[in-house]
Amino acid sequence: MRKIVLASASERRSRILNECGIPHEVIVSGYPEHAAERESVWDVVAHNALKKAEVVAAESENSLVIGADTLVSHNGQAIGKPSDAGSAKALLRGFSGSRIEVYSGICLIDNVTRAKACGIDCSEIFVREITEDEIEKYFKLLGPYDKAGGFSVEGVGALIFDDIRGSYYNILGLPMTLLYRLFKEIGLDISDHIKK
Length: 196
What we know:
It contains six helices and seven strands. The chain has 196 residues and is α/β, with parallel strands linked by helices. α3 crosses α4 (132-141).
C-alpha cells in the first residue's frame, strides 16, 4: 500500500490525520505561497494546494501526496498569516462582530498512477463582538498566531468564534470529508489507510 505524505508544515493538519488514525509522513514542499490580489481566494488556495502537492510528489516514491492551503476572507479581502503581534491584534479588531469565511484547497496526487484530484471547501464562522480590553487579554491566551486569519477556533478561541456553518475541520485547515471524496475520485478509499 502506498504511503500517505502530507505536503504541509502545519502541525494541526498532521494532528488531524493522526487523530483519524491515518499514518503519514510530513514533507514540507518549500513552495512559496502565491497570493495575488487580483485573484479570488478560491483561486489562490487551489493554486497553492496543487503546487505544494506537485513539488512533493516529484520527490516522493510510491506515495499519495496531500497538498493543502487555507486562507481567511473578511469583507471580500483575503487574509493570510499576520506578520506580527500588531497585525494580529488589528485582525481581531476587524473581525469583531462580523462573519468571516475560511477557504481550504486540497490536492491529492498518486505519484504511481499520476492520478490527481483537487477541491475546495468553504466554511463561515461568526466572531462575537470583542472589546479592546478583551483583545489584549485574549491575545495573550490565544497562542501563536501563525495561522490563516491569525487565530484558531480551538482552546480559548472557543470563547470568541461561534456559529460555524460548514466543515469544522475545514476551519482547522484539513476538511476531511473533502479529502475522503478526493480519494474516491482517484479510485481509492482513505479508510483503507486507517490503523487502529
